[in-house]
Every structure is written in C-alpha cells, then in structure tokens.
C-alpha cells in the first residue's frame, strides 16, 4: 500500500477540513474571527427583526473582541423557512429566525402557542411566552437538536381577510376556500369550522387570491400591508384566533461548542434585539389598521366566544389535547383557562 501523500491530496484534504470547520463554527486560525456563523431569515432586509438582529451581531463582534462574527442572510437568501430549518439542524447553517409553527413539523407540541383563542391580548401572550409556556417550547427545540434563545419574537395575532363578505359568525366559514399554513393545527382549525383549507406558500398567496384559487386567508395585520394583500381582499375580520411568533435559534452542537463567556455575549445581545423587535412591531401595529382603512379595507370585530364554542362543540380542543398530551395541554391552560 502506497503511504506517500501527494501535494494534491494534502491540499484537497486541507480544503475539506477548512470547509467542515467553517460549517460548524470551529475556530479558524488566521481569520479575523475565531467563530464564523451564518444567520438566515425569511424576513425582508428592512423588517424590524432583521434590523435589530443585525444591530445585535455588530455588538457581538465588538463585545467579543472580534472573536464571533455572525453574517446575516435575510429575505430567504438561504432558502425557504423549511429549507433553513433543515440546514440549521444539519449544521450547514448555524442560526436562524425560526417561525414557531414550523417546530410542529418536528414535534406536534411545537404548535402549543397557536391553540385557537388561548390568548385574548398581548399581555396574555408575553406572560405565557416569558413564563412556563416559552420554557416548555424551548425544551422541544432542544430535543430536535436546536438551541432557542430565551425571548420569543412577535409575528402577530392572526386575523381573517375575505373577498366578498366579512367573517361575523362561525357559519361564515362554511364552504369558504381559505389559504392555510402547512401547520396541521391550522388545517384542522378551518376544517372544524367547515371551511376548505388549501396549503399555499406565502410567496404565492397574492396570486392565489387574485385568481380566486382561494377566497380568504389569515395573517397578522403587518403582512396585509407589507405584502399588499389589501389589493386582493376587501374585508378584515379581527378574529385574533391564534397568535404566532418566532424564536432566534442555533444548531445545538454549534451552540454547545461556543465557550460559555461568548455564549453569554451572544445570548444577551440576541435577547435584547428580540425585545426591541417586539417594541418596534407594537408601534407599527398601532398605525397599520388606519393605513389599511385608508386603502379601502373594511374592518369588523366579531365576538370571539361563539367561535371558541363552535370549536369545542366540533371536538377540536379534545382532539388536540389528546395529540399534545395532558402535560403540554396543562401548560397552555395555565394561561388560557379551560378550553377542552
């Protein structure tokens, strides 16, 4: 057996080793930073979460003495949310701004925060997410190989928009073609109310509404304006039926390999950025309804209780209590009161 190592083999091996070290954030001597990371997000470059996280990354570089460098790739530059989840779990990417609903594709309990009508306002949301519910969700991230930072970010309360008539009572859902996220809880919700849900990726939603593939959709107010959905929808019913959020998270092994003093710097700044994002979005949400009204969208505020009772009657809560398990369901009901 020839034990002579050629120059070409040595160079190739060195390049492969360097790539592996870069992928997992392992110190690379001779570079400006010891730990080089990629951070992905599907949010636009001008979204508050992107701007605040990039501020945090700058502070992390400064406070770590240049040892930690996190490069931001917003706007889906590294793929869809589903793609990026896969990349972060494998270590091909290191950090991401992860929609909490996507956690449910790895563990059904990842949708606990989205139980319909569990929260009546943001006071309820942040009490739960900064308390036991948020802590419980982070344990699920750990089990799927991810590290979730302590503070959750806001996406918003989900409201219904429609083309031809507002949603006033549960009967208005019957037969309605609704775009739903691929999150099973959402599909189940609309089916329980008698609607016909269709899973359509968000980038295709505008055209789907314009061509009447679907007649209705659900999203936070901010996205109605940002994505110009008011051009293809006439009514917005402020149902606030579920709340959605995001966690900044990291590959678990990458995070564990970072020295504790650097973990502290990263955590402090990313959590601060998340709290700032909450404030930014809260300010934005105070103006968006007026802006959309000026653009022709009509708003109504239906009573939420009949919808909750309709779901209860349809067996929706009982079904999901069984899927989540009694322990997980108990964490939700600590903040929502009895649902099932």
In short:
The protein is 45% helix and 19% strand. By secondary structure, the protein is an alpha/beta fold. The termini are far apart.
Describe the structure.
With 340 residues, this protein is of the alpha/beta class. It is built from 13 helices and nine strands. It has one domain (12-332): Bacterial extracellular solute-binding protein, family 7 (D-Maltodextrin-Binding Protein, domain 2). Strands 1, 2, 3, 4, 5, 6, 7, 8 and 9 form a nine-stranded mixed sheet that branches. The longest helix is centred in the last third of the chain and has 35 residues, at 260-294. Residues 1-30 have low confidence and may be disordered.
Approximately what portion of the residues adopt beta-strand conformation?
15-25%
**Separate helix tally:** 13
User: From the alpha-carbon coordinates, what is the Rg to the nearest angstrom?
Assistant: 22 Å
The pLDDT mean sits at 89
* Helix proportion: 40-55%
Number of domains: 1
DSSP summary, beta strand count = 9
Gross geometry = globular
N-to-C SSE string, H for helix and E for strand: HEHEHEHHEEHEHEHEHHEHHH
Q: What's the CATH first level?
A: Alpha Beta
CATH architectural group: 3-Layer(aba) Sandwich
Distance between the termini: 70 Å
Point out poorly predicted stretches.
1-30
Derived structural class: alpha/beta
- Report the sheet with the most strands, covering strand number, pairing sense and barrel closure: 9 strands, mixed
Q: Quick one: CATH superfamily?
A: Bacterial extracellular solute-binding protein, family 7
């Amino acid at each position: 057996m020839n034990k002579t190592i050629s120059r070409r083999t040595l160079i190739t091996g060195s390049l492969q080793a360097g790539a592996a070290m870069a992928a997992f954030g392992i110190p690379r001597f001779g570079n400006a930073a010891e730990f080089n990371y990629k951070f992905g997000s599907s949010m636009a470059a001008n979204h508050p979460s992107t701007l605040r996280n990039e501020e945090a990354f700058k502070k992390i570089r400064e406070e770590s003495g240049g040892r930690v460098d996190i490069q931001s790739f917003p706007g889906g530059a590294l793929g869809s949310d589903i793609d990026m989840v896969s990349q972060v779990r494998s270590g091909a990417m290191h950090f991401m701004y992860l929609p909490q609903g996507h956690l449910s594709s790895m563990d059904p309990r990842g949708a606990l925060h989205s139980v319909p009508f569990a929260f009546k306002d943001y006071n309820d949301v942040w009490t739960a997410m900064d308390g036991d519910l948020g802590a419980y969700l982070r344990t699920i991230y750990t089990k799927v190989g991810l590290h979730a930072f302590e503070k959750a970010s806001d996406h918003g309360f989900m409201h219904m928009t429609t083309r031809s008539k507002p949603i006033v009572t549960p009967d208005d859902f019957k037969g309605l073609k609704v775009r739903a996220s691929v999150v099973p809880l959402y599909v189940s919700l609309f089916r329980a109310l008698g609607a016909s849900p269709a899973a359509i990726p968000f980038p295709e939603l505008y055209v789907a509404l314009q061509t009447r593939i679907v007649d209705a959709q659900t999203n936070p107010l901010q996205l109605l304006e940002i994505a110009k959905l008011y051009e293809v929808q006439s009514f917005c019913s402020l149902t606030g039926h579920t709340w959605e959020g995001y966690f900044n998270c990291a590959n678990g092994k990458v995070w564990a390999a970072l020295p504790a003093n650097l973990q502290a710097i990263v955590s402090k700044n990313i959590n601060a950025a998340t709290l700032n994002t909450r404030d930014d979005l809260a300010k934005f949400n105070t103006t968006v309804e007026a802006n959309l009204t000026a653009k022709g969208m009509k708003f109504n505020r239906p009573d939420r209780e009949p919808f909750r009772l309709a779901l209860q009657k349809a067996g929706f809560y009982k079904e999901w209590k069984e899927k989540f398990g009694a322990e997980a369901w108990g964490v939700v009901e600590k903040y929502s009161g009895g649902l099932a």
